[in-house]
Design a protein that fits this description.
- The protein is of the alpha+beta class.
- The chain has 3 domains: about 200 residues, no CATH class; about 170 residues, no CATH class; about 100 residues.
- Helices cover about 20% and strands about 35% of the residues.
- The strands form 5 sheets. It has a 17-stranded mixed β-sheet that branches. A 4-stranded mixed β-sheet has the order 24-25-26-27. A two-stranded antiparallel sheet has the order 5-6.
Length: about 550
Amino acid sequence: MPTRVRNLYIGLEKTENVRDEWYWSTMDRDLELAVYEYAPGAILTKDKRRHRVVGFAGSMLEPQVRGADIDLIADPNWYGDETHVAICGTCGSARHEQGMPSQPVTCHDCSDPVDPDRFNRYVTPNGFRTDFKAEDRDLDEIGTMTFRTVATVLQQGTAVDRGNLSVRRGAGITIMHLNDGVEDDQGQLSFFETQMATDRSVPIPGRGRPAQLQEQAVSTDFLLRQGSRFSAQAGTVERFGLMARKETDAIYLELTDFDPRLSLDLVARKGDFFHIGTRAAAISATQMLVQKAALHLDVSPEEFEALEPRRRDRRPMLQIADALINGSGLCRRLGQERTSDGEIEIVHLAKEILGEPGKWPQTAFMAVDAEGSHQERCQTACYKCLQKFNNRRYHSLLDWRLGLAYLRAMTVPGYACGLNPGEESLPEMDGWLARARELAASLKGMRPRIYDVDEVGRTMKLPCIIERNTAGRVVMRFVIVHPLWRTDADLPMRLLGSLGGPPTRFVDTFDLERRPLQAMERAVDRPPAPSMTMHGAAA
């Protein structure tokens, strides 16, 4: 039976109380973890000893004693699955081809061409190896931090419309966890480079004479440092990334229409349709849905994969998949109609997140305990609301208010995130304007000689940072806006009622909460967001 557990071979150990018998000491991880934790350059600890990963190996047979010699045999097939993946230069989505394409192919999300030179080769190792020389002391170097990408290739499934939301159920998805190696000084990914070699000095505990081990794929960087220990095979250098691929079930929530004053479609991974605040809102909404579904189905949230959002055919899409390979049935359950009212289960859960004050997450968001009001002290996310250990890579992006706003825009037609009268009292908007004013005052305190605070706006009085030069003349103003408001070329007229006055830029509260001065610098040269056409499609 195929297994998704991969071994890291860390050396030979002597079998206790048995003469002339040794075995391979190993560590193991699930494949999705192994391609990151066991990648060449990593340093791991076992039994208080440090082990340096230097390459890959196929399955190791048990050592065989032949008189004074010990035979070490490794399967020459050190990798199994192989494919080619490109990241679209326009939208950042993944395109997958089994072989290297000879001509441009079309991106499935944005329909732009993807050139063959954007494709890189990825392999799935069958095993990993160290240098077989454990150290009791700390090593002089630290393990390398590799670049992680999760790429998805989806199958559409059956679409069921619910208002301005389309649920695609019965769908499948290919999830590829990619390790592209470390970034160099210019930010370019290095990938991994190995050469087949024979290890001529494998330590044998209790014996002074080492053994040989053939068919080892060893990092070329390590080979250069090891001198005569390895005998490399000419013409076997390979460059590649690491991959853990699985097929499973998924469910997708596609937003088919929304208020054109909002930026809900700017969820692409890169390019003109990328906006970090909007993407963070979609990620937060996905995390809410996963945690709500886990509570409803009485399973662990780890049973789901909360995938990052994508922009497909000009529409934003949230993606949730089963964590179990080939599917566990959980996403299929979320796509079923409820017998009581015929509503699709995941749509019902989204509405319950927004409108049930006695159930999670409202009980967490609106909680008042000995530390005070959660709504007042948690401006983004914390471990009492959205943050969990398993979503720690997104902690800097999670925001419970933005998640609520994104879900409400998906389920309530006409919702405009505070731009319509009455919406300022909703949980996600309550206190937003006051917080924007606090952030403006904080910015002024950082640079009191050049920043002043004012208020502008035709109907809603928004805080505004006035920047002056050394002579005291106003050179620019920065209007603080909500992260989900569309900062297109028409926004000054919509909010301010005029295009006059000093040059005007917009900066949102998502950026000001996390990197205020950098947000101000980037706002100066940021182009307007793409405008909207009919039915929520960006021009």
